[in-house]
Design goal:
By secondary structure, the chain is an alpha+beta fold. The protein has eleven helices and 17 strands.
Amino acid sequence: MRSNGRNSGSGNRDNRGAGGKSQSPRPRSGGARGDKQEERPRKPRPEERRYDVGTASSDEQGRKSGGGSRGASARGGAKGGPKTPKGGTPPRRGPHGQRETSRPRELDAKIEERNRERHNKPQVKTPKTFPGAEEEGERLQKVLARAGMGSRRACEELIDQARVEINGEIVMEQGRRVLPKDEIKVDGLTVATQSYLFFALNKPAGVVSSMEDPDGRQNLGDYVNNRETRLFHVGRLDTETEGIILLTNHGELAHRLTHPRYGVKKTYLAAIQGPLPRDLGKRLKDGIELEDGYARADHFRVVENTGKNYLVEVTLHEGRKHIVRRMLAEAGFPVEKLVRVSFGPIPLGDQKSGWLRRLTNTEVGMLMKEVGL
């Protein structure tokens, strides 16, 4: 009986020991291979991953997963930040996001002293006569472009083709600077670089050749009254004479165009009644005596003849009052209609009566060449 009790007691102890560890056996799910899969953590999907920069747990998780360490450590997370130190404390950053580095206090003191000296140092203004000073003038291609000679690229091509002169010297290099007093020519024609205006008006009959009229008659100023710059006419035309008349604010050019010394030629078409003698042209070229002296024509020709109606062309360089009308009347052929068709190198062309047009740069250059400007 005792032996049975000892056996039963040992059996109870065995059962208690077994029950302390586990009362029921672990179920098998897939064998040993399944146990390993349960122990290995599942890799998170891309949308499930978390990149916590600056935490030690993220580095440890990255090393365990195998792929997270490279993204978190090498690239510093999804935002490309620097690698987090091993201790887990992120690096200090400056006001603009830059990484701060520790430096000795002596270096900080030197930098502060240098900045203070630089701030307190008086600024020295370099005169323009010094070699290092800013160059005076303006670039040539910019001046040409503003004067209407074309785009800057086109003006640079003019310089490369050796077609531009400054004070009589051909310019070959780009970037040459010019002053307002310099004389610039393109293809031998002077370029008006200042803010000068040049217009050609086809004056109708009945318009007074003045910029204003005290009697209220129609005058040249009525065609340019909306201009901010004051213009004045170059020479005059009779009230009943039609044709081209120039308007400008270039005083020297206007003076030279009307001065007898420069002999700028003007051409007129006159309607007269015939028949005309053969020697009329010779008489006009030799000179017709008027009350204020002889007047001579530079050129004469018959343009059109319809019965007794003649249209003749007269060219002369004088600018006396009513000179064409007086010459033909003295020769015996009163003028019925008179039109000025050219002034120097500027033709009237097909410009309509009463129309105002701006002269081109080429035309302005030809005018200046005509009078030596």
